[in-house]
Amino acid sequence: MKTLHCLLFLSCWLVAMRAPVDLPLEIGAPLPKGDLVLQDCSGKEITLNKARMNNGLLVMFSGNNCPYIERNQLRTQEICKYALSNNIGVVLINSNIAAADEKAILAAMKTYATGQQYNWYYVADKNAELADAFEANHTPECYLFNQQAKLVYKGAIDDNPGNADAVKMRHLHNAINDMLAGKAVKVNSTMALGCNIKRF
Q1: N or C: which end of the chain has fewer CB within 10 A?
Q2: Contacts 24+ apart (CB under 8 A), 166-172
Q3: H or E element: which one contains 196?
Q4: CA 110, 86, 186: angle at the middle one, nearest 5?
Q5: Angle subtended by helix axes 73-85 and 171-180, to nearest 10
Q6: Over the stretch 99-111, which tens digit does the pLDDT of each residue have?
Q7: Domain 2-196, CATH among 3.40.30.10, 3.40.50.1820, 2.120.10.90, 3.30.70.100
């Protein structure tokens, strides 16, 4: 009996001492790492809180080189322009960077952003710090925050990231409209498919 008590005590102690597990970013969660200083491809330093506008913030994990990014180029441009036109800040995040190549990556990001006519922030996520905080794993992967910087939608731009011609549900567009109308977002979480975000 004494041995059993010792084993139970040891088990409880091990559970208590175990490092806490990061929970996924759930709907209603506050904007993570809002004051982390980020390097925009233009050379400007920003934070997510500073990029947030009166009606909220759209954060999208993206990149320069990925088949899914290529298939979603037009859709990315359209939804980011739509967000900005409705006073929602936009930040695209490139987490697939190695610290040693940061300057070269930023230069490539600037070239890409210019070619895509980005009129919003495109920042480098050194050491995938934001990707980890958001629990983001794919590109493109989207997170929409409201006026109070609370998460109201996460997931894909639409229901067919691989084929724009087969899209039936424009999830992110619908979420923006629900949020602007002061309604609860009807579909607030979807599966994001795309290229994997690498952790270096």
Answers
A1: N
A2: 172/58, 172/79, 172/142, 172/144
A3: strand 195-196
A4: 110
A5: 0
A6: 657 788 899 999 9
A7: 3.40.30.10
